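Thread: Newbie trying to understand structure tokens

Hi all, I'm a second-year student working on a class project, and my supervisor (Dr. K.) asked me to get a predicted structure for one chain before our next meeting. I've only ever worked with sequences, so writing a 3D structure as a token string is new to me. If someone could post the tokens and maybe explain what I'm looking at, I'd be very grateful. Here's the chain:
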Amino acid sequence: MAPQDPSSSMVIRDVVPGTIATFSTPFLRSGLIKFGGRGTIVKLKTGNLAVFSPVALNSEAKAKVQQYAQASPPGNVRYIVAPDIEHHMFLSPWAKEYPDANIIGPEGLPEKREKNSQTAGTKFHHVFTANNKHQMKISSEFDDDFDYEYVHSHANKELVFLHKPTRTMIEADLLFNLPATEQFSRTGDDPRGGILTKIFAGMLNTRGDMKWHKRFLYYAVGSGDRKGFAESMRKIQSWGEFDRIIPCHGDVIEQGGSRILAQATAWFTDAK
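---
Reply by user tm_fold:
Sure, no problem. This is what the structure looks like when written as tokens:
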């Protein structure tokens, strides 16, 4: 369940001033679990912008995009990424507002959207599949700034990106960092409130040994193809160390990101 009035609750923050901004919003899974939601814009070295997990396109979001686009070097929104088959709710308004953008997503999402009259009609320019993932190229400017991996073995068909200049990983449902304190910070609502939220926040966080997070990944979202999941995690590990992870659900991780992700997915890479 998305907020009815995004302008009153959205938190827009420069994570890396002039380069990365986030749009954090309250979001309740099934109307009950306080997961939070987050979109991210990144200014490429060329000046053009990439948008990940687009959220509601209100006037404040448009103003932030315009600010980044007009800053030196100037550019336009050239890439809009739906990073899995779940994070596409606001894709159509962004695609309409920025018609020159390349739309990027995983296999299955275009077909899913075409079955719904409210989301049909958006053209995808780059669709990742299990077969083409190793050959997929977006563009020279995008590929110069990003490493990326399609985790086709994830239940939600995850696309994961590393912004190389700032060593920032951007992802959707691969890793949670609950509770969603920033995302609910303007609502007056306790981000830890509710029994189901307490249960999921106790499982899907990055504290301690992360045992329940490991179980969630190993026995749920990655259980269909653990070998493939492990291969994707090793690919991400090959990108080297990074501190920052920007997840869609929960707070931004600013320290030890690559170590935290390796710990969460160790049962795959260590061949449990």
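A couple of things are worth pointing out once you decode it. The mean pLDDT is 96. The chain has one domain: 6-269. Feel free to ask follow-ups in this thread.
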